[in-house]
Amino acid sequence: MGFDVGIVPYNPDGWGPPDTPAVPFLSGRDGSSTALHVPFAPFSRSDKLGRIADWTRNTNFINPSARSGASRDAVFDFALDDSAALAAAADNDSSFRLVDGKPPPRPKFGPRWRFQQRPQLPQRRDEEVEARKREAEKERARRDRLYNLNRSSATGGGGQGGNRRDAPTLKSSVDIQPEWTMLDQIPFSTFAKLSFAVPDPPEDLLVCGGLEFYDKSVDRINPKNERRLERFKSRNFFKVTTTDDPVIRRLANEDKAAVFATDAILSALMCAPRSVYSWDIVIQRVGNKLFFDKRDGSQLDLLSVNETSSETLPEAKEDINSAHSLAVEATYINQNFSQQVLFRDGNKLTFDEPNPFASEGEEVASVAYRYRRWKLDEDTHLISRCEVHSVTDVRGQRAFLTLNALNEFDPKYSGVDWRQKLETQRGAVLATELKNNANKLAKWTAQALLAGADMMKLGYVSRIHPRDHFNHVILSVIGYKPRDFAAQINLNTSNMWGIVKSIVDLCMKLNEGKYVLVKDPVKPQVRIYEVPQMPLRMITWKSLFLRKSR
């Protein structure tokens, strides 16, 4: 069966079909005209032309009642076809972008959203850290300027407080004379690598003095139940150097050891890497013996305050918050505290010999001197005089105690108010003291270890008012075991003895004479100077021992 094209009318007037066709556009098999049934879709010239007819279409969507008559014309009828609409919709969907008009989610916790930390880029976090550091430095400088201004107005004088870590601020503890010869300088970095183990426990040769019993009621003191610090002007405290000790003289004559020192001198050597201020030790080589001494009025007789702190202290020596004034105040507090926490009922624990430095009938502080000997090597022994301050009964056994006091002079320097923090944040207070007074606490711990103390008591003493340096109150008393506290502050006993052993070995190689070991006021190192010898007629055994100092 052929395909009937139909009659194509001719248009003599131009292109396209004539305006009025003479014959039907398309006729069916029955001769009826179908031109009226051909759909016509108007279009503009800018529209794209689609299909004229589509024989692949699915005509099932047509109403069944009209399917018989319209199925043959369905290929031309796009009015009921949704493919064009779907294509248009697809074109529109490809260029359509959905805009989110919903409001942002509200935080779950209301106004606390500003405290929630959001993730930040590392660069931005570093910038904020640096900005906070700069702000802290500005605030510190502003506070220092304000303090210096108030101090000038109060004292009627000027003076600017600079950074005490600068070289002009820190001075040497002893004047280095031109005739002294520097033999060696040892940086503290070499001390950190040293280690030496001594036999434990050491040998007790002699114990002198007398001890009063500890009053356990002071352990219940707290900031809300503070106790006024008393003054003990009638009791004498002795700070006797090594060669002025009659017991050490006797032990040296009996050839009991080759090296002699005190616990204060040994602790200064053992904790030297933690020190900032300058100090000095006199070393005397007499025959095959070595004596470690201190000068009269030495820096070792005073307790430093805020030595390792980053906060600056006033430079004027007459200021109550200067380094020297605070050292004198701390020493005074420490002595009075060590006597106030005892039972003063006349009951004392006596030992082999009385106090070797006290006169008959003289009232002395509660103290016992333990002369102990350590073995450094096969040919070298060391004897040291070690102090304990009190005794107590623990489970039916006697326990020796050392008593020391930390002092608060102005909360703005430490940033921690003891009256507010001691009960609730005692660890934070101790951590601040370990940061500001690392050397002092390390030396106290070393002295307790040398003396074989069973417990070291630390008192927290504060001024009644920050500008009153004469009146103080006890806020709290806390006890620690020396070995546990040494581990807590990272004080290694093997390293301590390694430092002492290295200094002893170095000095044993020197010739007979007098030497001075000086901590540099600026650099972390110690220097050894040789002091010229006295004339031969003045060198006697008596001249090698210094005058007794108290």
From TrEMBL:
Highest taxon of source: Eukaryota
Q: Which Pfam families match?
A: eIF-3_zeta
Q: Where is the composition biased (Basic and acidic residues)?
A: 123-146
| Annotated keywords | Cytoplasm, Initiation factor, Protein biosynthesis, RNA-binding
Region: RNA gate, residue numbers: 299-313
Q: Name one GO cellular component term.
A: eukaryotic translation initiation factor 3 complex
GO BP term, pick one = cap-dependent translational initiation
Q: Per the record, where are the segments of Low complexity compositional bias? A: 110-122
Q: Which GO terms describe its molecular function?
A: mRNA cap binding; translation initiation factor activity
Coiled-coil regions, chain positions: none
> Where is this protein localized, as stated in its record?
Cytoplasm
Where do the segments described as Disordered lie? 95-170
- Alphabetical list of InterPro entries matching this protein: eIF3d (IPR007783)
Function, as annotated, reads: mRNA cap-binding component of the eukaryotic translation initiation factor 3 (eIF-3) complex, which is involved in protein synthesis of a specialized repertoire of mRNAs and, together with other initiation factors, stimulates binding of mRNA and methionyl-tRNAi to the 40S ribosome. The eIF-3 complex specifically targets and initiates translation of a subset of mRNAs involved in cell proliferation. In the eIF-3 complex, eif3d specifically recognizes and binds the 7-methylguanosine cap of a subset of mRNAs.
What note about domains is in the entry? The RNA gate region regulates mRNA cap recognition to prevent promiscuous mRNA-binding before assembly of eif3d into the full eukaryotic translation initiation factor 3 (eIF-3) complex.
Q: Which family does it belong to?
A: Belongs to the eIF-3 subunit D family.
What does the subunit section of this Swiss-Prot or TrEMBL entry state? Component of the eukaryotic translation initiation factor 3 (eIF-3) complex.
Q: List the PANTHER family hit by this protein, alphabetically.
A: EUKARYOTIC TRANSLATION INITIATION FACTOR 3 SUBUNIT 7, EUKARYOTIC TRANSLATION INITIATION FACTOR 3 SUBUNIT D
Q: Which HAMAP family match?
A: eIF3d
List the protein's name: Eukaryotic translation initiation factor 3 subunit D
